């Protein structure tokens, strides 16, 4: 009987040690995760500031007579150049994308061009705050719906709360319901589709994804500027166009990287503003 009790005590002692080690591992994992989330939120704040600056510059340059097609062309070009530079700096392959993901990335490139073009046009027609509210509200709604349908992932309660608040804010927008308003809704729905597709590429190098879809976006912008646009390839001060492109690239990359650490739907919604 004593031998059995001793074995039982040893077994219970070892199981307790194992449990404590597991708990310590869980605590360490939680701390590491919280650090990543803080880094992700910091990157999202930096990216949002950069893109907010770009939206203000877009409004200013449009008032100076620079066409939207010219701005989108240079922003796509600088996004591709900055992405390639960072890939070279971090010694990443420029073609590090598997064939299984090329279709999704090509779709993201098309969406990137559409959203950049339409949102830039909306910012030139609306007040900045009203344009942001319109774009953000429909983006969150369609993004959460697309995530639910395509990824089969249930949105968090906080995400749903953000969506409801943004929809309520639509009632305070003073802009007229005209063609521009409809384009803003279309851009937001397209960005919601992007938000859903991004979930499927969460394990792929986000920098490689960004470079590939920026290349597709630049090709489409160049094609439209040459054959279907009345705007010239260079309008106004070139340094302003280059700075807009650099700020947009840095903002998008910061938001995309931060989104990998912390799945904040507002970060995804602001990527192409």
TrEMBL record:
The chain crosses the membrane at residues 39-58, 64-85, 105-123, 129-147, 159-175, 181-199, 206-226, 238-256. It comes from the Eukaryota. Keywords: Membrane, Transmembrane, Transmembrane helix. The keyword Nuclease does not apply. This is Drug/Metabolite Transporter (DMT) Superfamily.
């Amino acid at each position: 009987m004593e031998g059995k009790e001793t074995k039982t005590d040893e077994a219970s002692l070892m199981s307790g040690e194992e449990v404590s080690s597991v708990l310590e591992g869980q605590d360490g994992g939680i701390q590491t995760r919280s650090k990543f989330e803080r880094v992700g939120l910091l990157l999202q704040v930096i990216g949002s500031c950069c893109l907010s600056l770009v939206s203000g510059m877009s409004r200013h340059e449009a008032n100076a007579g620079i066409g939207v097609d010219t701005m989108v062309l240079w922003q796509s070009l600088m996004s591709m150049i900055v992405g390639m530079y960072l890939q070279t700096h971090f010694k990443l392959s420029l073609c590090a994308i598997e064939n299984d993901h090329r279709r999704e990335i090509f779709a993201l490139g098309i969406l990137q061009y559409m959203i950049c073009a339409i949102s830039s046009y909306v910012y030139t027609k609306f007040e900045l705050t009203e344009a942001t509210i319109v774009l953000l509200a429909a983006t969150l709604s369609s993004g959460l719906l697309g995530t639910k349908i395509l990824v089969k992932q249930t949105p968090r309660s906080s995400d749903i709360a953000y969506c409801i608040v943004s929809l309520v804010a639509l009632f305070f927008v003073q802009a007229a319901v005209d063609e521009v308003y409809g384009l803003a809704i279309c851009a937001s729905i397209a960005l919601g589709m992007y938000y859903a597709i991004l979930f499927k590429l969460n394990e792929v190098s986000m920098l490689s994804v960004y470079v590939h879809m920026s290349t597709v976006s630049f090709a489409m912008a160049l094609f439209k500027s040459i054959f279907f646009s009345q705007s010239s390839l260079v309008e106004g001060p070139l340094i302003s166009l280059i700075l807009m492109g650099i700020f947009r690239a840095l903002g998008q990359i910061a938001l995309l990287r931060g989104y990998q650490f912390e799945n904040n739907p507002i970060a995804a919604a602001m990527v192409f503003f």
